[in-house]
Automatic annotation (TrEMBL):
Gene3D superfamilies for the chain: Amidohydrolase, Urease, subunit C, domain 1
Keyword Transmembrane helix annotated: no
Signal peptide coordinates: 1-34
Organism: Paraglaciecola hydrolytica
Occurrences of domain Amidohydrolase-related (ranges): 105-448
Pfam family, one: Amidohydro_1
Gene Ontology terms, MF aspect: hydrolase activity, acting on carbon-nitrogen (but not peptide) bonds
Protein's recorded name: Amidohydrolase-related domain-containing protein
Keywords: Signal
Amino acid sequence: MPTKPRACHSAAKLICRNWLFLFCCSLASTSLTAQEGNVTPFAVKADDNIVIYHNANVLDENGQAFTAKMSVIVTGDKIQALKPANQISANELKSAQVINLSDKYLLPGLIDSHVHLATPPNDLFAKATMRRQAYHGITGIRIMADDLRPITEYARASIAGEIAAPDIYSAALFAGPDFFNDPRTIAANGGIKPGTGPWMQAISDETDLTIAIAKAKGSGAMAIKLYDNLKPELLSKITQAAHQQGMAIWAHGMVFPTEPKDVVAAGVDVISHTCYLAYQASDPKPLTYKNRFPVNAALLQTGDNHLMETLFASMQQQNIYLDATLTVYQQYDQRLAANPQMSPKPHCSLSLAATLTQQAINKGVKIATGTDHIMPRSSAFPALFDELELLAKHTKLSPLAVIQAATLNGAYILKQQDNIGSITAGKLANMLILNADPSADISKLRDQYMTVKRGFMLKPQDMPNITELEMPDEQ
């Protein structure tokens, strides 16, 4: 797990200073522009603006139950206090904007823990995707490797209230040099040679890891994503070096050729895609990401494979979260059903992914809710709602446990648990308000009254429609 950050060596300090100088100059420039009249239609109008969300059923800060007849007092973009509604004084009600939420259900804003928005960059598409997320209760997203040049600007614009969007937390990608002929890396590195930009770096045994990580940090990333073509010893060194600079490590379940047990042993913070972990029980194992093949389902479908038991126990002991992405495997199933002759065949099914996810849950592994999927324009809701419903249907997680995975757990993997993830005084006013109780039926998350993002109110019926220009129909 992350160790206490240490100072960079002198070369890395210079890199840090140079990148941070450029970043701060950019922020200063945009700040001046805002002061000169930048439009911020999605920001609260004053830091001392007080809103009382009154008499609601509020999810407690541990995500265990809704408490009736509670009021949340928001000042500016922060939660100031949470009290029983009958303890709100007449003077408090008189001095605030009051939103009466009798019979409504108030919970933290949701977090999609696996999103790609700029591979390749498409400004209209990205902003439409984020708009749909923000208007439907998603107040945070984890970017899992993209061109961070536009992503960092979206993150700034979201915080400033210039666009309707979740808060954005990004990773830079590290992989071996052979990975960077992948068309996606070419698309995400326009104007430069893939593997040479700070947001997507080709890493070898000769790489100065301290400098490489400092560059990634300077590009706006808060984490390193380990993707492909990294051997166990190098993967472990990257993890240790990143933790020393206060960077999280997010990894695939298998970072080919490094097998899952060695990814776990390195002490990464989050592992994505349940079925990549299934390669631990496969013999042989794929040597590269590009040459993946189906996992050995026969060894895994009963949900008690001893190799997986050992692997999940190790994840639990090290507090490594699992970003299951059941939506990905649902998509595989749908593509295979539409084209039974497709080649290569998907490496895993939804049924097997769910079985393995439940096995991980049984061993105490904490789940995060990522999608790695963007719904077409015709869908009213973002993919996260499918992911939450799949978890509730195909595992033994209760609806409230699924909501906890999408709120508190999402906050922890972002190292933002002090700022988001629960309805707690001092945290950001990121909230989802529902018309119905989701604790017995997870689909009630779709019955939405309002999203509050950093104190700003967004009602789903007010969302501008996504146009065909923004999000063309799939061919």
